[in-house]
Amino acid sequence: MGIIISGIGSYVPEKVLTNADLEKMVETSDEWIRSRTGIEERRVAADEQATSDLAYAAALRALEDADTQAEELDVIIVASITVDQVFPSTACILQKKLGASRAFCFDLEAACSGLVYSLEVGQSLLKSNHRYKKILVIGAEKLSSIVDWSDRNTCVLFGDGAAAVVIERDAERDDCILSTSLGSDGNHTEVLNIPAGGSRIPASEQTVAERLHYIRMAGRDVFKLAVNAMVSSSKEVMEEAGVTSEQIKWLVPHQANYRILKAVAQRLHIPEERVYMNLNRFGNTSAASIGLCLDEIARDKLVSTGDYVLLTAFGGGLTWGSILLKW
Ligand code: COA
Known about the structure:
Helices cover 34% and strands 24% of the residues. Helix 3 packs across helix 4 and helix 8 (219-241) packs parallel to helix 9 (258-268). The chain has helices at residues 19-23, 30-37, 51-65, 90-98, 114-128, 152-155, 205-209, 219-241, 258-268, 279-282, 289-299; strands at residues 2-11, 16-18, 41-43, 75-79, 104-108, 134-141, 161-170, 177-184, 192-193, 216-217, 248-253, 308-315, 319-326. The protein folds into 2 domains: 2-170, Peroxisomal Thiolase, Chain A, domain 1, CATH 3.40.47; 177-326, Thiolase/Chalcone synthase (Peroxisomal Thiolase, Chain A, domain 1), CATH 3.40.47. By secondary structure, the chain is an alpha/beta fold. It has a 5-stranded mixed β-sheet, sandwiched between helices. It has a 4-stranded mixed β-sheet with strand order 8-13-12-11, with helices on both faces. It has a two-stranded antiparallel ribbon with strand order 2-3. The structure holds coenzyme A. Coenzyme A (COA) binds next to helix 2, helix 6, helix 8 and strand 12.
């Protein structure tokens, strides 16, 4: 009896925002953005689309891929830092859209590590309670709603999107998640955050005037911390499973920045052609990014049964984590 990924689906909004578009909005250049980040364009949701709408579109595709009806779901976990409302949870809002009446639903906040965290929580639920058979795990973000479009340090980096994964028990197969390593370090909350809007600094006219509801980031600090955390957790999961870098078919890192991914791959001795990247098209979509990659890898048949796929993520919190999959 193993826990398998039975379906994957993703969705990105139609509207494309190119680097050339950003040149008209802030003092930047296509050359600067490409050379510092590898990003060429990103998707931006329509005003009327909330995160749950992006999640819904991705969820329908994942359910179809898994040949599963929404009513069969036992749990829905939505990982997001751009929830529809502070409460109720976006997972509950999504439940209604899907008609997944049997499921219990909750949001999980681990910033860009959200999908990796949620996969671990989901598989733990399946393992610990045999009443649960099918779980929908989603990373969904409308980052355009929390990006300061006048801040060139951050607005060039992020994009909107959603990715959904169905995990379930399968009597015929072995576990597809071989090993997991998650970590957090609350000593670095200041390097990546949104200062206001919570109980510490509730929303007020002043917080709006001071633009405290947007992402703040110390880019260079994040860069260094990200590389170290992703490398060490990746090493841990490979060691635990007895799998070497040479055996990894795909390294699927959180799509933060091309230079971060390159540094991680180098330190793990994984050649660049085995590092999956789509950040040139989507930018950093936080909790959605790894799922967007997995969906493309599966749809384009870039992976076969038995291949090792290494997921690694890093985000605000700090949070980080790696998961080694056997496809
Ligand atoms: N266009 C043009 N210039 C820009 C710019 C932009 N969009 N954004 C910043 N700059 C300027 C800075 O103001 C700075 O100018 P200064 O030297 O006059 O002050 C200069 O470019 C260099 O900035 P620096 O911070 O040294 O650039 P960098 O090489 O560290 O790259 C990041 C900046 C943000 C791309 C990089 O630090 C990064 O990717 N960090 C990680 C971010 C991330 O992934 N966050 C999410 C994690 S989940």
